[in-house]
Design brief:
The chain is built from 2 helices and no strands. By secondary structure, the protein is an all-alpha fold. 0% of the residues are buried.
């Protein structure tokens, strides 16, 4: 009877090992499934936030584009004013500069002309 009990115990141990293997495989599969599900949820969340950011960016960057266009127009107007002013009085300015440079009138500075007090 001992041999039969021993064989029965061995069969039970084998069945228990087989059950442990099946349970372990099932746990591993569930962990992998949970991990892939979590990764999918992360990707979906990332896509959602990126879309929200792009929407926010497009709504708020349109104001910047308008400001840039306005600044560019103002700069063009100022450049035209400067060019017009230069065209109108440029010759006179050059003439005045040449006159000052060519007509040198040397003068002795006051502190050099006054005698040094000792």
């Amino acid at each position: 009877m001992s041999a039969q009990n021993s064989a029965g115990i061995q069969t039970l141990l084998d069945a228990e090992r087989e059950a442990q293997k099946i349970v372990q495989k099932d746990r591993t599969k569930r962990v992998k499934d949970a991990r892939s599900e979590a990764q999918k949820e992360i990707e979906d969340y990332r896509k959602q936030k990126e879309e929200e950011f792009k929407k926010f960016e497009s709504e708020h960057s349109s104001g910047n584009q308008k400001a840039e266009e306005d600044a560019s127009k103002d700069a063009e107007v100022k450049l035209e004013e400067i060019k017009t002013a230069g065209g109108n009085s440029g010759d006179k300015i050059v003439e005045d500069l040449l006159k000052v440079v060519m007509d040198v009138k040397p003068e002795v500075p006051d502190r050099v002309a006054a005698p040094a007090k000792a």
